[in-house]
Write a structure and sequence with these properties.
With 259 residues, this protein is of the alpha/beta class. It has eleven helices and nine strands. It binds guanosine-5'-monophosphate and manganese (II) ion.
Length: 259
């Protein structure tokens, strides 16, 4: 699938690009602890697309930094308006590796955060790795600057064959997000469950939080709780929603799921 780069560029600045928000819920107390901003792009030729479908197009067009900036700006503004009704909830923003490695892009994120009036401690940058890390020292510097600014940092979509996994796990991430393939396959004993256990044990020893993605059913919830995972995100808990739906969702959730 190919789309004219000019059409994509225009889409990023208008109503065709939307942010959806999916809650992250603590397993022990069922309190919402975060809200991940997820991009949706509607193209006249293709309808509404999820990131899996449109990120490759955006990358081909050389627009990944623009996309990241546009969604971060919206997410931070939306979160600033919502945060009074979401105590204890951070905003999680996806930043691809190639963007994190560009110092200007990081500085821009910092500007966006300050302009929205959001405290750094309430922001988590999720590192998404679509290509293998080639410059681990460069990544380590970028991570240090995110941490120095006071933001949290998550490693997204962790799977056993993530390139350079061991090197990445040595970096000072505050959160590790287990990919939904691991969470779903861990329902049966085997390599996925062993992997989830290994990552979680390592995270406990280093004071990191583990989030299970793609939580779709109670069986997966129970297994992840037994493994010692801290929090979860997925259709069992909530679908990605529009900003104006989040506060009501949160009030309903707290009323029906917490003591
Ligand atoms: O790469 P990342 O994990 O950030 O992507 C999240 C994507 O997965 C979003 O587009 C979101 O809509 C989708 N998603 C969210 N929760 C679930 C779930 O429980 N199951 C599945 N299959 N997909 C999910
Ligand atoms: Mn993510």
């Amino acid at each position: 699938m190919r789309v004219d780069p000019d059409i994509l560029r225009a889409a990023l600045t208008g109503a065709a690009l939307e942010a959806r928000y999916q809650p992250v819920i603590g397993l022990a107390n069922r309190l919402p602890i975060g809200l991940e901003a997820l991009a949706r792009l509607t193209l006249p030729s293709h309808g509404r697309l999820s990131p899996d479908a449109f990120i490759p197009l955006i990358e081909q067009a050389g627009l990944i930094a623009e996309l990241t900036d546009a969604i971060a700006a919206r997410a931070l503004t939306d979160y600033a308006g919502l945060s009074a009704r979401l105590p204890g909830c951070a905003i999680l923003v996806n930043v691809p590796l190639d963007v994190l490695l560009v110092p200007d892009a990081l500085a821009r994120l910092e500007q966006r955060r300050a302009a929205a009036g959001v405290a750094a401690r309430n922001v988590v940058i999720e590192l998404t790795e679509r290509h293998a890390v080639e410059d681990l020292p460069g990544l380590s510097r970028a991570i240090d600057s995110v941490r120095a600014a006071g933001c949290g940092l998550a490693l997204d979509d962790i799977v056993p064959d993530l390139p350079m996994l061991d090197g990445l796990l040595d970096l000072p991430f505050t959160m590790l997000k287990l990919d939904r393939s691991i969470v779903q396959n861990a329902r049966r004993p085997g390599t996925a469950r062993d992997f989830a256990q290994r990552i979680t044990d390592r995270a406990h020893a280093r004071g990191q939080m583990v989030i299970a993605e793609g939580m779709e059913d109670p069986a997966a919830w129970n297994i992840m709780a037994a493994v010692g995972v801290h929090a979860a995100q997925g259709y069992l808990l909530a679908r990605p929603m529009q900003a104006n739906e989040v506060a009501d969702w949160c009030a309903d959730w707290l009323a029906s799921h917490t003591a």
